[in-house]
């Protein structure tokens, strides 16, 4: 049976050598592509497996790096890097553009059909690419209800889907309201799904190291959020070609 292929890709961004995970679908022709961003801890096997799952659906998928090949399992170390990053839209866009350049130059990628999907900090990077005017077919985020600089959301030219846990203390109702107000004022085609009873990073399987308060895995909602992401891609970035070609 023919299977997907994967490889590691290295590229410069944010003064670091980033190490991403590229997954390619069956066949040789060009395919729609997905830029996949990780939680603030950084790229892990969770995102690598999701990129592989997207390739199995027919997408070229790049799970990008945030921290130069490092996974920040120490919450203090993670926050020390991510808080300044989240406060700097230009840095986030730089990280996103560097990964996007890798994805666009992959011969299997159709450069006119790319979506961004991300979790936490990786989702914020996807949103900033949209606010920066990048031509994306869709933006999907979980736990990333960040707001941008005033007026820049009007540059988003694609549907935006966002998911969040109802009990997420890092993305509380006030943050949800600010995000949706920004999207609405900008005329964005937006959707927000609130998953009842879920905490922050509810999609991420339990880890064997300390985490920030308010984090917790919710297996049922994790599956639902993944289905919602896949549905978003099916709507906005359908794979219509013969995958054997």
From TrEMBL:
- Signal sequence: where? none
For the protein in the UniProt heading, the enzyme class is: hydrolase
Instruction: Determine the domain of life of the protein's source.
Output: Bacteria
Keyword line: Hydrolase
Q: Pfam families this protein is in? A: DLH
The molecular function GO annotations come to: hydrolase activity
Enzyme Commission code(s) on record: 3.1.-.-
Q: Does the keyword Hydrolase apply?
A: yes
Question: Which InterPro entries does UniProt cross-reference here?
Answer: AB_hydrolase_fold, Dienelactn_hydro, FrsA_esterase
Q: Does the keyword Ligase apply?
A: no
Q: Which residues form the Dienelactone hydrolase domain?
A: 20-235
Family of the protein in this entry: Belongs to the AB hydrolase superfamily.
- What this protein is called in its record is Dienelactone hydrolase family protein
Query: What organism is recorded for this protein?
Result: Streptomyces poriferorum
